[in-house]
Amino acid sequence: MTAPERRLDVAGLSTIAVGDAEAERVVVFLHGRMMAAGDLAPFAHSLGMPGYFLFPDAPIAAPAGGYSWWPIAPEARAQALAGAAPDLAWFDPPGRAEARETLAAFCASLPADRDIVLAGFSQGGMLAMDHVLHDGRADALVLLSSSRIAFFDWQPRLDRLRGLPMLIAHGRADTELGFAAGEGLRDAARDGGADVAWLPFDGTHEIPLVVWRALRKFLGRRFPARWAG
User: Fold this and answer.
1) Are the beta carbons of 169 and 144 closer than 8 angstroms?
2) pLDDT tens digits, one per residue of 177-225
3) Average pLDDT over all residues of the chain
4) Which long-range contacts (CB under 8 A, 24 or more apart) does 135-140 make?
5) What is the rounded distance in angstroms from the CA atom of residue 197 to the CA atom of residue 190?
6) 5-72+84-228 CATH
7) Of 88, 98, 99, 198, which alpha carbon lies 20 to 30 A from 153's?
8) Measured between alpha carbons, how far is 120 from 168 in angstroms, rounded to an integer?
9) More confident position, 173 or 49
10) CB of 181 closer than 8 Å to CB of 171
């Protein structure tokens, strides 16, 4: 039976909701820059797992289409990505604090007795990590094809990750965010004491089948058996 899908307003964000709103655990999935909730919502159906999946649209409309979590600054981003292995570790995007506040309000609007799995692709993963490092609510973290940002701010906060279940995946041929960016994110999480499942894959800036399988396995292992389908 196909899980119900509907469009809701959650803390001011237009959100695609899939599954049982009364489920004990909620998966909040953040899209990347110039993407939209609808790009990722099919994952909730394909996983075939019970739960409540929320896919918010970021609040900033991107000029080329889709949405972003903070304003796009092409020149600053290009400068940060200069080099053989694109990595945004020292890039502090404008609007980072505002994006974090938006996500915090979104998570705070969810019932306090629910566990939250916070997942993000690319820019969405950067925001998810930034949220957790600033004491944001999450019981597990999934970072797909992402990177560190504002690491001068993140580094002294890494101990907030201690014991947190995390899945980090990155493509070896990613030219949008180099493979070194994923490795740096993995190392930072491990340095903070997170319980990291690391998945390097032969691919680019994408979410291929091998990552889908890893996500399903991650949810099935970390949470009650009924999540395993």
Assistant:
1) yes
2) 999 999 999 999 999 999 999 999 999 999 999 999 999 999 887 665 4
3) 91
4) 135/160, 136/100, 136/103, 136/104, 136/107, 137/104, 137/107, 137/108, 137/110, 138/107, 138/164, 139/25, 139/115, 139/164, 139/165, 140/115, 140/116, 140/164, 140/165, 140/166, 140/167, 140/218, 140/222
5) 10
6) 3.40.50.1820
7) 198
8) 10
9) 173
10) no
Residue pointed to by tokens 């390097």: 200
